[in-house]
Amino acid sequence: MNDYPVRTGSMLYTLVDPNKGHEVAYNRWYERDHFYAGCLIGPWLFAGKRWVATRELKDIRFPEDSTVTSPVDKGSYLATYWVLEGKHDEHFKWAAEQVWELYANDRGFPERQHAHTVMFNTPWAHYRDENYVPIELAFDHPYKGLANVFLDRADNTSEEDLNEFLSTTLLPSLLSEGSPIASCVNWKPIPRNDDIDGNAPMDLGSPTGNDERHMQMFFLEEDPRTIWSLFKDYAEKINDSGLATVVLAAPFIPTIVGTDTYTDQLW
User: Fold this and answer.
1) In the chain, what is the straight-line distance between the N-terminal and C-terminal CA atoms, in Å?
2) Is 211 exposed, middle or buried (0-12, 13-18, 19+ CB in 10 A)?
3) Contact between 123 and 185 (Cβ < 8 Å)
4) 211 vs 188: CA distance, rounded Å
5) What are the residues whose beta carbons fall under 8 Å from the beta carbon of 20, sequence distance 6 or more?
6) What distance separates the 2 farthest-apart alpha carbons in the chain?
């Protein structure tokens, strides 16, 4: 994905709802304390970004009977983090101890509910441009939105066959010249481990998904609301292929750091 030594090897994906009435307090706690104290000050985690799904964005998620978020509109704030290739275990061993330390010192936030908090690895990327923004820089680049597509591979389909179909048939068309979609990175979920995330001091939400689960992150140069039909068509082609089924497609926009913007637009 990147010609330089700094390469993304794994990711933390955490989708959360603040309890109603606690939106501003949650936003400030996460942005000003937990984003750093729970993640970025740790070893080998080198980038992070927060995203938000307003009511309008939640309303265009599909399918309605998603197994990732139930109900489908669950989860307002998304935080995503990159961990350096080869350093996953080292970082998350620190993180597992750190979160307990924070909670012991009253630096948790009980007025929130996790919708889907999962670690992912085995990334591969597809880019629109020959001179592309590598995934490693995606959180620092001023993209206007993010689209997540979760899909479950069919029982009779190998991971290699699905990856080949996506990378050689669907993604070149979706990310063709002039597309508002700059890049896509494909991930596999990591099963929960009692030594790391299986023993967290909070419920982490829906299950990680089994070996058939893939999750794709698309980085967008336009507001996802204006181009969502592209993802409707993309999901239809995946479903029609018989190789996999889309179990959630969800758009997000970046939070405006240092402000309470969007806290009044979640519900």
Assistant:
1) 37
2) exposed
3) yes
4) 8
5) 267
6) 51
Predicted TM-score of the model (pTM): 0.95
| Averaged pLDDT in 10-residue chunks for the chain of 267 residues | 89 98 98 98 98 99 96 98 97 94 94 95 97 98 99 96 98 98 98 62 74 97 99 99 98 98 99
Asked if 256 and 189 touch (Cβ cutoff 8 Å), the reply is no
Residue 63 preceded by cis peptide, ω within 30: yes
- Give me the pLDDT at residue 192, please: 77
The span from the CA of 136 to the CA of 47, in Å, is 8
Q: What are phi and psi of 242, to 5 degrees?
A: 80, 0
Do 52 and 262 contact (CB within 8 A), yes or no? yes
| pLDDT for position 256 | 98
Instruction: Kindly list the domain boundaries of the chain, sorted by start residue.
Output: 8-254
DSSP reduced 3-state for 109: coil
CATH number of 8-254: 3.30.70.100
Cis preceding-peptide flag for 71 (omega within 30 of 0): yes
**Contact predicate 87/7, CB 8 Å:** no
